[in-house]
Structures are given as C-alpha cells and as structure tokens.
Amino acid sequence: MRRFSSIRPSHTLVTVRLYILFRLTGRTRGLFIAPPRVKSRARHIFIAIAATIGVTLSVTLGTWSATANWFNEHIGVDLSGLKPDAKAAAQGQLRLAVIQSAVAVGALLALIYTARTYRLTRRGQVTDRFTKALERLSSEKEYVRVGGILALVQILHDAPDQSEDAQTVLQNYLVNHTPEAPAEWPDVEASTTSLPPEVQTAVDALGTATRRADFRLRLPNRTLTGLTLQEIQLVSADLSGSDFRRADLQGANLWGANLLQADLRRCELRHALFINATLRGAQLQQSQISHTSFAGALLKHAAFSDDKTFWSAEGTSFRHANLTGAIMINFHFVDCDFRDTDLGGADLRGVTFERCRLTGADLSGAELRGADLRGAMGLTRAQLEGARTDTRTQVPSDLVGLLGAPSPPD
C-alpha cells in the first residue's frame, strides 16, 4: 500500500496523457498497427459513412413535403385527404421507414468497412508470422529451423491466399540445403548422403501444400536420398535428375511428375502412382514396384533390372505406357497389365510373364530370348513376329510351332 500511496496525482495525470499519446501514435503493445496509408484510407471511409447517414437523415427530415408529394404521385398514396390524426400517424410511419432505410444503408457500409479492416488486420498478422518464421530459418540451431518450417506450414493452413510465398520459401530452402545430385550414377551399393532433419519436414510440408493449391514442386537435380515420403502428393512435380536412392515412396502420388533420369534405385515404390509421369532414362533397379501404376507413363530406356539380379513385381500396371528400349532383364511379372503397352526394342531377356495381360502390346524388336511367355494372356503370333527369340523362348500352348527360326545371337 505504501508503494501506491506515494504516487502523486500529477504522476497519474502524466501517465494517462502518455497512454493516450501512445494510443494515438499507434505504439501500444499487442495492437495491430496499420501503415499510415491504410490509416488515412480507413479514416476517409469512416467520414464518408458518417456523412452519408447524416445527409440522408437531413434530406429526409428537411424535405418532408417533397417526399410526401413524391409518394402521392408515384405510389398513389394521397396524404392530403386524411384527417389530421391519421395524417400525422401516416407521416410518422413513413418517416420511420425512411429513417430505418437510412440506418440499414449505414449499417451495410459499416459492415463492409469492418470486413475490410479485418482482412487488413489478418494480413498484417500473417505478415508478422511470416517474418518471424524467416528469422528462424536462418538460425544455427536445428530445432529453431524446424520451428520456422512448422510456422510456415501453419501459414499454409491458416492463410491459403498467401500460401504461395510460404511454398516458394520452403522450396528455395530445400534447394539451398540439399546437395546437388551426382553427375554420374553412383554404385547401387554406395552409401547415401545423410540429410538434415529439417529437409524431411520441409518436403512433408510441400507435399501437403499440393493438396490445397495448384502448387507444383520444382526440385530438379537434388539429392533426396533416404527420405520418408509415404503417400506424399507430388502431382506434376519437377524432380528430374534427382537422387532418391533408398527413399520410401510407398503410396506416393506422382501423377504427371517429371522424373527424367531420376535415380530411384532401392526405393520403396509399392502402391505409388506414376500415371502419365515422365521417367525416361530413370534407374529403378532393386526397387519394390508391386501394385504400382505406371499407366500412360513415359519409360523409354528406363532400367528396372540388370543381368546380375532377379527381381519380381505383382499387380503392377504398365497399360498404355511407353517402355521403348526399357531394360527388364530376368524380371518376374505376376498379374501385371501390359495391355496396349509399347515394348518395342525393350530388353526382356529371361523375363517371366505369369498371368499377365499383353493384349495389343507392341513387341517389335523386343529381346525375348530366354523369356517365358506361357503365362501371357492375349498374345498373338503377329505380336511375336517382330521380336527376337531363341530356342529357350517359351510361348503359350496355342502358339507353339508358330514361331519362326530363332534369332541369331549378337
């Protein structure tokens, strides 16, 4: 109590004056401060609203007789023939209706002004959060950088109309914090680069962003090895030349993505969608591709295997895909769909087709020496006429004896 009793009235008055001054100058803590231009515009809007209401009321009350005559001429309400009491009551009701209309117009203008002020306030708050997130990204501490990425993720969810800037920052952050992909294909057994944890967080955030907007991730020629990208949305992403070795892309959606010459060796690709994607020259050796869809994909010269290993896939769809010159040596396909697939010039030596549909598949120039085609469904003699076969090539029972002479060895 002694502390407060020592305060003089003059001190209190000075404190109140300072508080009012700070309020007027916009320096109070926790209050959103609009730029001077916004303040001036808001002040003009407020004056316009007040002037509109005032003028409407003044004109209505000051020109009552003119209003009554207008109603008499246009609406057919003749107030002059009424008794004084009835006329006064009618004039009161009419005056009340006009006043209520003016108030309604003023309320509508006030609502518009309030909504606009709210949008400006919210935009300022998002800008402040964005600035703080950028400061965290430049920190030397790992957990602070992760916090900055998560703050940008929250902006993606809370302010979709301003999410493009956050997405661009995250994308540039990944470009600057991931090594460039090797110029030459490293050995499949070679160790992969260990990436910082915030790279995983940033990729997850961008994968979420593509669900909410038309954002297209662009990370060409980057090292993204060993990342967990299960069920990530990377529709139409540009990942050409990137190194994904040992990454987990199970259930990922890469519909229409650009994976030109990407390194996908030893990746988990089961149930992933590569529909209409570009994987020309991509490396997919020792990757799990069961129940994966490559329908309509461009897979020219893509390598799925080599002559040193035996690999298998079940339930994979290559329908309408372009596998010209693809390498699938010693692959065992079970219940796979190759209908209307272009396999021209593909290396299918030692391949086994078990319950696979090849109706309409183009096998012209394909290497089928040592291949087992007995489980191929929809296969015709015309499809095999242009393929390269030998005495080890096995065909369905209804095509036995229809093959020509074995192709000469290379």
Key words describing this protein structure:
single chain, 410 residues, mainly alpha, three-stranded parallel beta sheet, two-stranded parallel sheet, 9 helices, 40% helix, elongated, disordered N terminus, disordered C terminus
Care to describe what's here?
There is one protein chain. With 410 residues, the protein is mainly alpha-helical. The chain has a domain at 32-134. It has nine helices and five strands, in the order ααααααααβββββα. The chain has helices at 2-5, 9-25, 36-62, 64-74, 84-137, 142-158, 163-177, 197-212, 381-385; strands at 311-314, 331-334, 352-354, 356-357, 376-377. It has a three-stranded parallel sheet with strand order 1-2-3, with no helix packed on it. It has a two-stranded parallel ribbon with strand order 4-5. Helix 3 (36-62) runs antiparallel to helix 5 (84-137) and helix 5 runs antiparallel to helix 6 (142-158). The chain is elongated.
